[in-house]
Amino acid sequence: MNTASAISDLPIEFSKVNVGASGSPILRQISLLIEAGAPTVLIGPNGSGKTTFLRAAMGLIAPSSGQVTWGGAAQSAPLARAIVFQRPVMLRRTALGNLHYALESAGVPRSERQSRANELLSLVDLEGVGDRPARRLSGGEQQRLALARALARKPRVLFLDEPTASLDPAATKAIEELIRSVSASGVKVVMATHDLGEARRLAGDIVLLHRGTVVETAAADLFFRSPATTEARTFLAGELLL
């Protein structure tokens, strides 16, 4: 996969970001820098704000206060960013049809779409399902197709929200291998996961969220070896964060 050498959207910086909905705070005073490199993995209990963080980092929601910047710019069209949600919606088309739609939306010339679609199917190991209805694929296949759609625009930053949730071990392994491949190609991956084992396997750095705040952030090996906060130690022990 070809990626541009410059990653113009990075670093992504949160500066005292608050996000609320219906009068209730979801993210509180988030200040964080996301830089190029190995995957940044968000962990934390349900309701900690991981999905909202990803949406704000993508630019899909605006802060109630504070600021998010991309490469130093307060306004940045998401042309080099892509996001895959936990339950991606498949279009009522074949797998190839889903990719053709994504490629058209990305401005890929019609003459190039078939070859690019085939490349993407190969990248996510779905060569044999191109003519099958996307909504009849297994959960793991749909997740890989969603990743292929996201990669159709050749993003430099890829956000993933619980990409292996509810998948069996074989499908989880396939998705994790794909994430490693995407990251190795130079794409910055920022992902949320509920699976601490997955976080250990994939993360370059860890961000622990709880009640909408960043409790701790550190290089993954340091975080798992020597967590600095009581909340992190509690979470890693499998106990409830209250």
The main sheet orders its strands as: 5-6-7-3-8-9
Percentage of residues in DSSP E strands:
15-25%
Averaged pLDDT: 94
Return the CATH architecture of the domain at 12-91 and 155-236.
3-Layer(aba) Sandwich
**Biggest sheet features:** 6 strands, mixed
Number of DSSP helical runs: 8
CATH superfamily of the domain at 12-91 and 155-236: P-loop containing nucleotide triphosphate hydrolases
Low-confidence stretches are 1-6
The computed structural class is alpha/beta
Could you give the count of β-strands? Answer: 9
Highest CATH level, the class of the domain at 12-91 and 155-236: Alpha Beta
The whole-angstrom Rg is: 18 Å
Return the CATH topology of the domain at 12-91 and 155-236.
Answer: Rossmann fold
| N to C succession of SSEs | EEEHEEHHHEHEHEEHH
Summarize the structure.
The chain has 242 residues and is of the alpha/beta class.
How is this structure best described in words?
This protein is α/β, with parallel strands linked by helices. The chain has a domain at 12-91 and 155-236: 3-Layer(aba) Sandwich (Rossmann fold). Helices cover 34% and strands 24% of the residues. The strands form 2 sheets. Strands 5-6-7-3-8-9 form a 6-stranded mixed sheet, with helices on both faces. Strands 2-1-4 form a 3-stranded antiparallel sheet, covered by helices on one side. The radius of gyration is 18 Å and the shape is globular. The relative contact order is 0.19. Residues 1-6 have low confidence and may be disordered.
